[in-house]
Amino acid sequence: MKFICTLFIALGFITSTSLHANDGLVSVMVNKQTYQFDRPIRLSSVLSIVADNGDWYWPTASAFDLTNPKAEREKEIALSQIKELLVSFNEGSDTHKALQNLFDQVSSWTVSTRLDMPISYNRARLFFEDNPMFQPGKYWIRLNGRPNVVHFSGAVVKPGAYQHQSDTSIYTAAHTVKKAIDADRSVVYVIDPMGNIEEKGIAYWNLDFAQLMPGSQVYVPISSELFSNKLKQLNERVAALAVHRVLPQ
User: Fold this and answer.
1) What are the respective helix, strand and coil percentages of the chain, to the nearest 5?
2) pTM (2 decimals)?
3) CB 198, CB 212: distance < 8 Å
4) For a 10 Å CB count at each end of the chain, is N or C smaller?
5) Same domain, yes or no: 22 and 89
6) Per-residue pLDDT tens for 31-83?
7) C-beta contacts of 178-181 below 8 A and 24+ residues apart
8) Domain limits at 58?
9) Would 202 be classed as within a structural domain?
10) For 148-156, what is the mean pLDDT?
11) 44 within 8 A of 58, measured Cβ to Cβ
């Protein structure tokens, strides 16, 4: 009996030790290949494994924390906010149609919590601040070649990827995509491939002729109400959520 008790204690210790050992692992998936490390590792060391495996376009590279549910929570909050607003407008109204369209779009988005860090092999090797340490956990780094599209969402008739043209301004790009009747005609939200969000003017009185980077997202907001900021808050929330989108490649 004493031997059996001792055996159970030993097995429990081994299991506990094994679980704690797994807790200390750093698992990094680069595109579809997973690499595991038994201690924290810097970004440059991870990228050195794959840096020469493709013609990577570093400005569109991104990293996600697969153990952080923040993005999924934000998606659910955004969908709940859209549902609440839908009941505030008549079913046949332009705003109701725009909100239903937005609900369908956001529902279809695949999101994952994006890490606020640039992914560049050269910068990670040269600058300490651009070479963070991956702590124990599960991560995903997406690398791809130079994209040739810009992704439109929001109050547009046909959301999705549109061909990126070199030297195309935000104003020009925004006016080549057909918008919904209740779209805001004065501004759009531009989410660049690094995850930065900027509100850009597209009306005659606030034109912004800045160039669009390939791989950017353009969120066309639903026009806000005069005496309520609920739609504006929703637009800002959805634009922030777009940072965490896993875009089709």
Assistant:
1) 40, 25, 40
2) 0.88
3) no
4) N
5) no
6) 999 999 999 999 999 999 999 999 999 999 999 999 999 999 999 999 999 99
7) 179/155, 179/220, 180/94, 180/97, 180/98, 180/101, 180/155, 180/156, 180/220, 180/222, 181/94, 181/97, 181/98
8) 2-67+116-142
9) yes
10) 97
11) no
